[in-house]
Amino acid sequence: MFGLKIDFDQPYYLLLLLLIPVLWVFSFKSLSGLGPYRRLFALSFRTLVFSLLVLALAGIQLQKISERMTVLYLLDQSESIPKATREAMLEYVMKDVEAHRHRGDLQSAAEDKAGVIIFGREATIEHPPIADEVRTVGALESLFELRTDATNIASALKLAQASFPEDTAKRIVIVTDGNENLGDARTIARTLADSGIGIDVVPISLPTLAEIAVEKVALPSDIRRGQPMEARVVIENYSQKDVKGRLRVMRRYGNIDELLGGEELAVVLKPGKNVFSFEHTIDVPAGYTYKADFVPDDATADVQLQNNSASAFTHVRGKGRVLLIEDWENPGEFAYLIQRLGEMNIEVDVMPSNRLFTSLAELQGYDCVVLANVPRASGGETEKQETSNFSDDQITMLVRNTEQFGCGLVMLGGKSSFGAGGWANTELEKAMPVDFQIKNAKVKAVGALVMLMHASEMAQGNHWQKVMCEEALKVLGPSDYCGTLHWDDFAGSDKWLWSDTTGKGLLQVKDRQKLWLGKLSRMTPGDMPQFDPAMQKALKELIPNPASIKHMIIISDGDPSPPGPNTLPAFKKNNIRISTVAVGTHGPPGSTPLQNIATATGGKYYVAANPKALPRIFQIEARRVARPLIKEDAKGIPLVISDPGHEMLQSVADVQPITGFVYTQKKENPLVEVLIRAKDVDPENGTILAAWTFGAGKTVALTTDAGRSWANAWTGSEDYDKLFSQMIRYAMRPVNEEGKFTIATDVKDGKVRVVVTALDKNDEFLNFLNMSAAGSGPEMENIEINFRQEAPGRYVAEFPADKAGSYLLAVNTGQGNNMLLTGVTVPYSAEFRERETNEALVKTLAGLRPVGGQAGQVISGDLKKGAVDRLVASVDTFRRTLAKAVSSEDFWPIFLLIAAGIFLVDIFIRRVTVHFYWLTPALAYAWNRVRGRQIEAAPDERMARLRNRKAAVANQLDERRAAARFEPQAADSSGPPRDYEQVIADATAGGPAAAAPPPTQQPTATPQAEQDTYTERLLAAKKKAKRE
Amino acid sequence: MTEIAPQAAHSRRVWLQTAAGGACALAAGCLAPGGPQTGRLEKVWGQRGKTPGKLNKPRAITIDAEDHLYIVDITPRIQVFSTDGKYLRGWQTPAFANGRPSGLAFASDGNLLVADTHYFRMLVYTPAGKLLDSRTIGGECGSGPGQFGFVTDCAQDSRGNYYIAEYGEFDRIQKFSPDGKFLLQWGSHGHDLGQFLRPQKMVLDNDDLLWVADACNHRVQVFDARSSEAKVVRSWGRNGHAPGELNYPYDILLDPAALAGRPEGFVYLCEFGNHRVQKFTREGEFVGLWGKNGRGEGELDQPWGITRDSRGRMYVLDTYNHRVQRFRL
Description:
The complex is a heterodimer of chains A (1028) and B (329). Chain A is of the alpha+beta class. Helix content of chain A is 27%, strand content 27%.
């Protein structure tokens, strides 16, 4: 009733109530003096107090039962479901919520809630559960960041469980084909059922239409240079008829693409498996990637196009190849070096930084990678110019390529390299023999950066603002200064995100980077009304700041009021540039002020149409404050060779002074070899050439350039050729061709199987080798595997490959330095293998019976855009068949308080007599008043009673007097009046002895009595009476 | 003991006298006129949402002669409510990809003026939501006469002339004839008298004096723009968080007495930055305040607008709490 229920925290205390009869027995006797009514009252109250105490002890709780319900829709957006069906899901949700949700009114807010979670490889909230219809502008908003190449129902269930509000019944409606390939939905669903959460499932039936899938490209395990080999393409035709189409097989090595067979092949696929062979030879040793694509002539013959290509990778060893990555904004900067290396028989491929490698496999054809004065991010100087950067993944690939696969990594200096290139705090810094951030306070390599954040109105604004700030902060070194300004909603003013005790917000980074990253993750910038106060705040701290380069970045939609007339000149005067980034500006009035700010202070103006470009822009901008890391001296910086015996410096007679280099910090590691350093600079920071072994490979850092502007004195000499060729050869992957190993790989059922056959020089099996392998998956995740020997000379290992992409392995044969490289490509996600709905899972999930409720339902029907009404009508997803939400509130303190109050009443009843004599006259009075009678002055009853009593006593006295046989004594009427007490005493005494004579009267008859006390007289009178 | 007792009794008497005196003084103080007034909350309504009757960051509020509240939010819909929050009707502005309207006011003929901020124009709607295209003023971005930056608010005087305020590159107010012809403009970006930093809201009193909430200058400016020139006749307000100080006043409201120019009239300012409503005399003397930052009832989060019904009850747009609060001050 009223949705309330009573419950107890420790119900066994209620047994104490059995003591109530005992209480009655004892109290009944001890309260006997009170009279029947008071005893009854006292007993009742005492019982009540005791009962309340027991209830309080038992922890009485009031439970509120909520009638509300929350339904979360889990929409499977994985690629195994046709796109049209995925798009129809939202329509189904909108109509279903509209049809079945119980609405309340605005005041009570007692209405059902609905929310949407979408999932693929992971899950994300599309629409949080709120008490409203689900309305969106069409497409799913959070889909762009969801990876749809896998189905992870379990993660969606977990997210749903965490997202449910507390005070409602809970139901999940999963719209899926049930083909999960990550996680275990059954286990999670069972825990949900245990928490009372119901599950309905809308199964998606997959169309049984024509389907073609390129299964794999198979290459022989033992490829020899110059010998004919066969590449086989396996294509599966799932339909029942022949399908015509074109097959194209590309072979790629370095930047060269070749079409096998010279042209596209017109083929006819029979139902079932089809195999096509391409015979060819490999003449150039390198890493090769094969890719096969099938295009059907009739587009309707194939539903899913994603599974129409497959690829494979192989590696043919030969002489070393070098990949040189240069800044795409300064092409040809290293042309001289490349030409000289070519002369020294080292082949160099050049890759501009805006056309970077995308997989680790691409790097496998090279034995050394050179980063030649490349900044981490570049471009974006004008509105239309692209920005490019090394993504975190690409940096990890570079590092992995060295650490695990033994490839050399050389970093050549210049104005955009090392710390000055924004490479600080990256994986790359860890791989190099020098750190890019300067710890030495004497080196005045300090910059100051202020970021002003106002991007709250863009989609996912807070998320992107955090990402950008984090990227910028990572570029800065410990000596740099950084501050972040934002509009604080609560304070109603602009605030520094971090500040010291004096309120300063532009602080030296030192070791506070992690602390600040934490603050950034909690930042929620508000809607700034105007720029000026924040810019004044920044200016106030930037002007006295000791940094040699000061910079400010503003990100905004441009609608705050522009800065005041004196603000921008003040920035200009103090040589502080402001770069502005426009996101979602409201037309020209928004963008013009931002443009003006940048122009007036000499900064850059960016327009970010895609939020993904923002972190790149911030990296580029933050790099500006890293400029002081460059040391330049036109007069020449003399150098010292500290290790002339090193193989890089063999036969190098001398090194000429240079005119510039980038400051770095030598790593505190005995493995670091510093070969050349600047003479008059702190040895810690003046490294010119250093090297060390990093994992399976070697890395080299040259902090000056290759002769374009700083090391001009080196060019043209023999030493130049020797130094650079020896540097590259030192770093290159070692070539070791002893022993005969063949390696074969195969992908089946989401697993990769690697088979190594080991023979020695005499073709005898090599047994009991301690073989292991390490590698990287498509997302740069580590793969560690161990081999087991299955037969003489045959070693086998397996690992799961649930993601599409290249899996690269470096197999350590356990014999010397011999390392085998191999790669496997999983052409497409497991999603595209699925052909049928997983009905077993659908039924299991819907069949689970939640605690306190009924099992869910399978909502079957066609899910098509514009035709979801039947599906909506078939089941009420907001039906009340689940355990209602109960919220408990402790009630015992109130019970304790009431018990204390009643205890007082109990005492009152026992100590104070209450009568109701006044009741009747009061009623009478009231009655008279009501009837309007003249109220007579009511005689005071108490006085009347007193008078009556007095009269009665007087009568009694007279009677006694009359009856007494002693001499009458005339009362002296002239004497003083006798008081009432005396009269009573006299009456009780019953004789003349008690009646005191008037004081003036002389004692005559009983002189003895005059000396007696009152008691003696009383006793005497008593005796006399007895005698008579 | 005998010596101390009288002293103790004396001190007790003194204490009691002091306490009684203090209590009297306190009571008198509370009742005394002239102390800061505090408001009284009457009703809270509104919930976040996109469906009819729900609000999402409501940005401007106004009221018609029948005490119907017109509210525009960032979805952006113009919704009409009763004074108790009952949803009556609603409609959307023609375009909103660039941004949403941020000003509403009623014309003397009972039609609704909408400051379509990011489309550089003033729209005119009938109370039923029909757009009167022919009466639109502006639509072009620029600094020339009849062009606009971000339009913040519109108002119409007793002679039917329109005043349209804007901010952005050019903080100014333009005056147009009843048929939409440009008449006059004044103001520029700055702190001086007659200049503006985001003139966010305007009100015309019965004498056609224009009261402007100069938001980022944290002040009120009153102009006489009845002739061919606009003159500042009054200006007050300074930045701060203390009672009587202003922090981004986003809306201004004059009670009927203030509109009539009587000295007992009051001016109400709704502060975006201080999360409250303050009450001033026409001369800018602080009288009282209501509201503080928070999510509870009677608490505000960055309010954008305020209005008053015929019964003297006031409505504040509690923007970031997505609701309306009715109160008296």
